[in-house]
Amino acid sequence: MTQQNFKRNCLIAATLAAFALPLVVRSATYLHILIILYLYAYMTTTWNLVGGFAGVLPLGHAVFVGIGAYTSTVLWLQYGVTPWIGMLAGGVLAGAVGFLIGKPTLKMRGAYFALSTMAFVEGIRVMVENIDMLGPFNLNGPRGLNIPPLAHGEVNFWAFQFATKEPYYYIILTMLVGVLFLTWAISRSKMGFYLKGGGEEPDAAQALGVNVARYKVMAMVLSSFLTAMAGTFLAQLTLFIYPKSVLTLDLSFELAFIALIGGRGSIAGPIIGALLLRPVTEFSRIYFSSTLPGLHLIILGVVLIVVMLFQPRGLTEPLTNFFNSIARRFDASAREERK
Amino acid sequence: MNLLEVQDVTMRFGGLIAVNDLSLNIGKGQILGLIGPNGAGKSTAFNCVAGLYNPTAGKIIFDGEDVTGQKPWDLCKKGLARTFQIVKPFASMTVLDNVTVGAFAITDRRDLARKKAMEVLELLDMADKRNALPGALTIADRKRLEIARALATDPKLLLLDEVMAGLRPTEVDDVIEIIRKLRDRGMTIFVIEHIMRAIMALSDEIVVIHFGKKICRGKPEQVAQDENVIKAYLGENYGTA
């Protein structure tokens, strides 16, 4: 078995194990924690398309989660459109908004882009909190939207509501695997090379034929579209959305934290980041939400500082080296056997 | 037939005239050297040609087409590639990946881009360093990487901005060798260089600029004896002292 094969087999084994997990984990609570973990890994991966590969720091991705959640929910509540179509509609709308935000701001360098995305998410949140009706659409202001749960007999695939946690688990896991595959394919393609080059040395990339701004906007649109799909999923999972749950800086920052700590611009980074950090958030909320709300952000901040000091490219790099050394040892022992 | 014509180009930054009414042309397959004292406007002239700056006045004709004010990435697709005086490698990408970015200018397919990149690296004797990160390279190799990336875009005209600055004499000889090899393959080359030995050995013709103005143009041996050039480099009183 070569190193390449060993790595591929590990990947396949991990994927199969993830799909088989609900056979072992029967508790709804733990399944829910896993679902949320995958959801964050998914959102961070889509964030990473812009924040990692294109080399800018978007701090307002909650806008797209919110657009996805509100679009599908409004369509379902007012027009009875299945959330699956709502998911695509939200994605398209978010892609358009991503284009409008990205077109002027992605030309800015460094902190200015980050600040303008932050301003945008705050602006949208305040607007939604103060608007009850947006044209014909009922956003219900700060009270949010409640999706009435269907009775057990009525739940079905098209309603995107299920009696147990397992279907949600499989849906988000499929979405995650899909978006990881997409990221992998992009990172090997012309677009991936152009994004990475343009993010690191824009002048050099432009001289090599890269329209840096255009590729960044393309990445932004794709990222917005995919992030909005997570918003629809979140709405259908919790059946209740309000501005402070989906349109917040908290969520925007957390995605950036996970990516930065896990490893920006790498495919495994968001997964590793989510695996390590989501439990921190989850448990600090369970145990400290009444006494110290927001504690998880402080913990994440401290972890981020430590990681940036000692592993500025995130935790993926040392873990990859560790994994590679195992793969090499495996390779070497296999060669021994053949002799 | 001229591949590049610079017609009366002026570049002004506020009150400073960096390039003043500069005209020059390069024939196909020629090597043209651009020299001048520090601050003479060489790099600014280059940046106007390469599309980084939009000249205040004048025209740039490339391959029979007016390309004044076009963007660097469009010029690159038309066959104009450049290196930077201060090397700008993509630090987190391997040498091969760096060159592959350039090769994607001529193809959308990864395997073809990879193949092109390997060809260029072999041409420049860098194939054995393909998996290194730019940070691990010597200055000479980093300069060579700049050339390799530009070559991967399959240019008709190559602009080389001081690719020999900071190199040891033997390394300079290697680069001269490379540039000759490229010329023999029919490439047109526009060089800025401070190392006189190199520019004298390479150039078919040399243009000298001083305070943004062209003061001399001619064969290397003519330029070396031109009174204005000697004054520009050595001072007004050199002849009388």
Short description:
The complex is a heterodimer of chains A (339) and B (241). With 339 residues, chain A is mainly α.
Report on this model:
The complex is a heterodimer of chains A (about 350) and B (about 240). Chain A has about 350 residues and is mostly helical. Chain A has one domain (about 5-339). Chain A has 14 helices and four strands. A two-stranded antiparallel sheet of chain A has the order 1-2. A two-stranded antiparallel sheet of chain A has the order 3-4. In chain A, strand 1 and strand 2 form a beta hairpin. The longest helix of chain A is centred in the middle third of the chain and has 27 residues, at about 210-240. The model of chain A has no long low-confidence stretch (mean pLDDT about 90). Chain B is an alpha/beta fold and about 240 residues long. Chain B has a domain at about 1-70 and about 190-235: P-loop containing nucleotide triphosphate hydrolases (Rossmann fold). Chain B has nine helices and ten strands. Chain B has helices at about 40-50, 70-80, 95-105, 110-125, 140-150, 170-185, 195-200, 220-225, 225-235; strands at about 1-15, 15-25, 30-35, 55-60, 65, 80, 155-160, 190, 205-210, 215-220. Chain B has a six-stranded mixed beta sheet, sandwiched between helices. Chain B has a four-stranded antiparallel beta sheet with strand order 2-1-4-5, covered by helices on one side. Chain B is globular, with a radius of gyration of 18 Å. Classes of the chains: A mainly alpha (about 350), B alpha/beta (about 240). The interface between A and B is medium-sized, with 20 and 30 residues.
Summarize the helix and strand pattern of chain B as letters. EEEHEEHEHHHEHEHEEHH
The fold-level CATH name of the domain at 1-72 and 188-233 in chain B is: Rossmann fold
Number of helices of chain A: 14
Overall body shape of chain B: globular
Going by helix content, strand content and strand pairing, the class of chain A is mainly alpha
Rg of chain A to the nearest angstrom? 21 Å
Q: In percent, how much strand structure appears in the residues of chain A?
A: under 5%
Helix content of chain B: 25-40%
